[in-house]
Amino acid sequence: MGEVTSYIPPIGDIKFVLRHIAGLKDLDDDLVTQVLEQAGRFASEVLAPLNQSGDARGCRIDNGEVVTPPGFREAYARFVEAGWNGVGFDPAYGGQGLPGPIATAVSEMWHAANLAWGLCSLLTQCAADFLQQHGDADQRARYLPKLVSGEWTGTMCMTEAHAGSDVGAINTRAARRGDGYVIQGNKIFISWGEHDMAANIVHFVLARIDGAPTGVKGISLFLVPKFLLSASGEPDARNEVHAVSIEHKLGLNASPTVALAFGEGASAELIGTEHGGMALMFTMMNTARLAVGLEGVAIAERAYQLARGYARERQQGRRPDGAAARLIDHPDVRRMLMTMKAETETMRALVYYTAGVVARGDETRTAFLTPVVKGYCGEVCVEVASLGIQVHGGAGYIEETGAAQYLRDSRVVAIYEGTTGIQARDLAQRKLPAENGRVAIDLIAEMKALDVPLGKAGAGLVNLRSSLRQAVAGLEKSTGWMVRAQGEVDAAAGASEYLRLFGRVFCGYLMARSALASLSAGPPDKLVTARFFAERLLPETDALTAALTSGSESVMELSEDEF
Asked: Active-site positions?
């Protein structure tokens, strides 16, 4: 049980990536180390021990009130008291004002230690970031300090049972009443939409004002608190919003996913302008998509640590000299562990690189990379968690070892905040065509420019250089093909392969940068991991290029009756 509940924060790798990939070279190293070590201690000592027990107990609903697993409320109170929720926020609202990549690093630890618990703070931070950007001065004054501190939590309420991902089809209605609005309707799949950990919950809700245009152009965005505020700004009367059910899910059992009913008199405040809600919600959604990509890193790290620990201890078979062997002595187990290690480190590099881009205010590159981060990490983390079960063998298929939970918990990362197919479409059919592929072309040029320093690095990186050069060439070819195919079914049919291809190649580029940095800054395992990624994982890009450039004929040829 100790191995299941333990979590070792990878502070060394996090610091390396912050400095050499995210670009935080001028930060006070002592300060960064202190923040990471304190966060790691909280994650490993407070959150990790609650992970398996929370999964086993789950949440329950009693007369519309959700009760979280034992220990969750107490852990959240300590989290708020220590100020962890506000690490990356403006001190004017009670935040600590640290750079965004540092907030990314500490969030990784919360999610690796306890993904279900960490989702609550993820959504609250997204809500606070959104309100800081789009709330009016009065709304920021009344709600933002409590969201930044985490004393109140936040949600996104978009999905309705009949509409799914087609947000333009929502039926939730809004009507003007006095100086405000009331809304009425039902939302489903609301993560942490009701719980007992905070004094108030701030819902951001999409609804259609009576008489509004149809489709997404008629959608407005509203702030709906669980408790209305008194004149002094404290929670007062209960608003007409209640949880009517709690979902029974494959994983994340300790994270309450609820259906919410907004009664006829649910008081609401408009955010922004009428009928401008969809564009605003995408601000919060895209922040969440980057955070969900980080969840992929976190759950992969946790699955890798568990598999590594089991492989080091479990005796299985014999070595060539006749001595008893452990799992880690077998080459195929080493292959799986190296794959898990390389995939996790490259995902971390991708997410932290993007966090650096966000911190530098490059909105165009951020927009392009967001679907890559979410879609690529969402898929790869499931693969890593699945390998974790395989390393355990039959023991991984039973719940006691903990490996199965990580696979169950990881599966939704590729689904919520937009499935991988939605991310692929966004990348290939919206972001890529802009200016005839200019952002992708610029990123490919950045990758190609690394060829010169790799060539000067010596014989140890020859294979890495050759593999990366070939992969970048394939990406360049595929990018040109996808840009030319816009407006055709071919682009839609190849979108998911293109997202996977871009993520794979860009991760290879970041791994090559890590290898170069490790020549002078260490650690030496970076060189080996980068070579493994180049030799064993980057070759997948040839197949992806061939698949997506084959067009859509075989994809679309069968009639629906032939399926």
From this structure: 417
